[in-house]
Design brief:
This protein is α/β, with parallel strands linked by helices. The chain is built from twelve helices and nine strands.
Length: 279
């Protein structure tokens, strides 16, 4: 597997297909294998690159709390593995990384696809977010990292219809998630440049020159939708796509609809650009 050597880490990546470049950036508690169910379909008309973020999968590194490092890493992947402006998709915390990178190096991006990013999630935290943070850290301090990680993922994948995608997933997916427990728990430590991208201003996102598509699952937390809406109110040209029946694990819940949203094709989705309500 090819890799990129960067200060303190070697990032492993994979490229398949041909056509216009597309980069997929995974979220917390996963690695590049999270895209296995959609990468071949996307590669039919794109040159798709996926990579393990620093500290995840095969890109071994101590846990990263400063997400400016992840943003710099993404820029390095674009420069060294792609070599031209690309459409870049970021899911969950990966979406925040994509936004942060684009505000610093817009020349590397031709288009952004942001999938359920918790952008400014700390300043707009609701009771569920605060309760999750407290419970997670208490479990971690008591020496129960697996239980703490499960608290996080049950919160992140909660479904409006009840339950959560984590408990509904098969053992293989849950084991993949728990394998990355250490970097996840580190990301929940307080840090001025942490996972919620609080250091990136909405104004900087509004000024980005490339088109932005923001993808949401209809079953996901209203908190996630509200974070998107606060950005869309300032930048109404964002194309918002709500995928019916999907929770936070959109690419796993509804892979065909996810692929169509990435391509900009209509399918079993709702396009709500310019509505300002994100639903």
């Amino acid at each position: 597997m090819p890799s990129i050597d960067l200060p303190g880490a070697r990032l492993h990546y994979r490229t398949v297909g041909s056509g216009k470049p597309l980069i997929l950036v995974h979220g917390s508690a996963t690695d590049m294998t999270t895209w296995d169910g959609v990468i071949d379909n996307l590669a039919s008309d794109h040159r798709v690159t996926v990579y393990d973020r620093r500290g995840y999968g095969q890109s071994e590194h101590r846990p990263v709390r400063d997400h400016r490092i992840h943003a710099r890493d993404l820029c390095a992947v674009l420069e060294q593995a792609v070599g031209e402006p690309a459409k870049v998709l970021g899911w969950s915390s990966g979406g925040n990384i994509v936004l942060a990178s684009a505000t610093v190096r817009p020349d590397l991006f031709s288009e952004l696809v942001v999938v359920e990013a918790p952008f400014h999630g700390l300043r707009h935290a609701d009771r569920a977010v605060l309760a999750t943070a407290v419970r997670l850290k208490l479990l971690q301090l008591r020496g129960h990292p697996q239980e703490a990680t499960e608290v996080f993922f049950r919160f992140a994948t909660a479904l409006q219809s009840g339950g959560n995608s984590y408990d509904l997933a098969d053992d293989s997916l849950r084991n993949d998630i728990l394998r990355n427990a250490t970097p996840v728990l580190a990301e929940w430590d307080p840090h001025p440049f942490g996972v919620m991208a609080e250091h990136i201003s909405v104004r900087a996102v509004v000024k980005l020159p490339m088109p932005i598509t923001w993808v949401l699952g209809s079953e996901s937390s209203p908190w996630m939708t509200g974070l998107h809406t606060r950005v869309q109110r300032r930048r109404p040209d964002i194309d918002t796509v709500v995928i019916n029946g999907a929770g936070h694990l959109i690419h796993l819940d509804c892979p065909a609809e996810f692929v169509a949203a990435v391509r900009g094709e209509p399918t079993r989705t709702d396009h709500t650009a310019h509505t300002g309500d994100g639903s």
